[in-house]
Amino acid sequence: MLTEPLIRGIKKQYPHSHITFLTKEMYLSLLEFNPQIDKIICIKRKAGEAIDELKNLSFDLVLDLHKNYRSTFIKLSLGYKSNNLFKANMAKWKMVRLKSKDEIEHITLRYIKTAEAIGIKYDGEGLNFYLNPDTNIHNFNLPHNYIALASGGKYKTKCMPPELIAKIIDKTNLPVVVLGGREEEFIGEDIRKHTNKIFINLINKCSLAQSALIIKNADKVIANDTGLMHISAAYKKRMVVIWGNTTPRFGFFPFYPDDSKSLYKNFDVDLSCKPCSKLGFEICPKKHFNCMMQQPVNDIANWLNE
User: Which superfamily, per CATH, for 145-305?
Assistant: First the structure.
């Protein structure tokens, strides 16, 4: 979904262009309702599945926004040259290994730069997310005003621990709706062990589209470094972002319009061991998990309660 401003820019500059988007099948729901994409080709398991279909098409320009072995294999198989994403791997390595204070340009702006040669520039309007119009959340009986909290993430060291979530819930004025996937299902019960305050546990109870709609309807959002953070930015929600072992300096912070950047605030604990990885771990390598456990709960709650 962070490629949307690039797609939007191409359609603005070249209204009659035909955009084909190649992605994994699991990400189809993030793209299929985007009216700017003309064709989506999905890979179920292996990159080679798409070769025959792609060979039947003809392209004037190929943008490689992944620049990994799969995308390279596809390009070599088709014989196309391409404009490639600048991944900034050396800067990330220096930040993780040498603890440099580099700041990498946002990934969305780096995506757009792959099309600079044909005149594509960022329009300053942030992200758009196109939700399935048939999505509904009526069965959840949510309150009229609430805070949505996105608890999930692929790596545990990027996720808020239940103790921290409970402390935030204790101090917020509005009820909190906790979202997450199957991997976070245990978190709901763990939160209850640390707070007596009522919260609404929707972990593993709604689809990605329903989670997006819950965020769209929320007054405010609490998120860690995860996909729902980017959906929240696309909906221009007032948001607190809690950073664990990663850092916004990697260039994956919330991408708001130029005139709306005050809508979110990063909470990123300054530690000598951070960032410990450009992705994350199952457990904290130092065993203390201070990047989460030392978050300023009162400051977070005060910002949310304003």
Answer: Glycogen Phosphorylase B; (3.40.50.2000)
Contact criterion met (CB below 8 Å) for 26 and 131 = no
CA-based Rg of the chain, rounded to a whole angstrom?
Answer: 20
Cα distances from 197 to residues 168, 193, 306, in angstroms, run 11, 11, 20
pTM value is 0.93
Find the distance separating the first CA and the last CA of the chain, reported in whole Å. 30
Q: How many CA atoms lie within 13 A of 3 on its CB side?
A: 21
- What is the rounded CA–CA span in Å between residue 106 and residue 108? 5
Domain ranges of the chain: 4-118, 145-305
Domains 4-118 and 145-305 share a fold: yes
Q: Band the pLDDT of 154: cuts 50, 70, 90.
A: confident
Which candidate, 125, 2, 122, 7, places its Cα nearest to that of 61? 7
The angle at the Cα of 194, spanning 189 to 200, to the nearest 5 degrees, equals 50
Among 129, 124, 83, which residue's Cα sits nearest to residue 106? 124
Peptide bond into 133 cis (omega under 30): no
Decide yes or no: CATH 3.40.50.10810 for domain 4-118. no
In this prediction, residue 185 has a pLDDT band, given cuts at 50, 70 and 90, of: confident
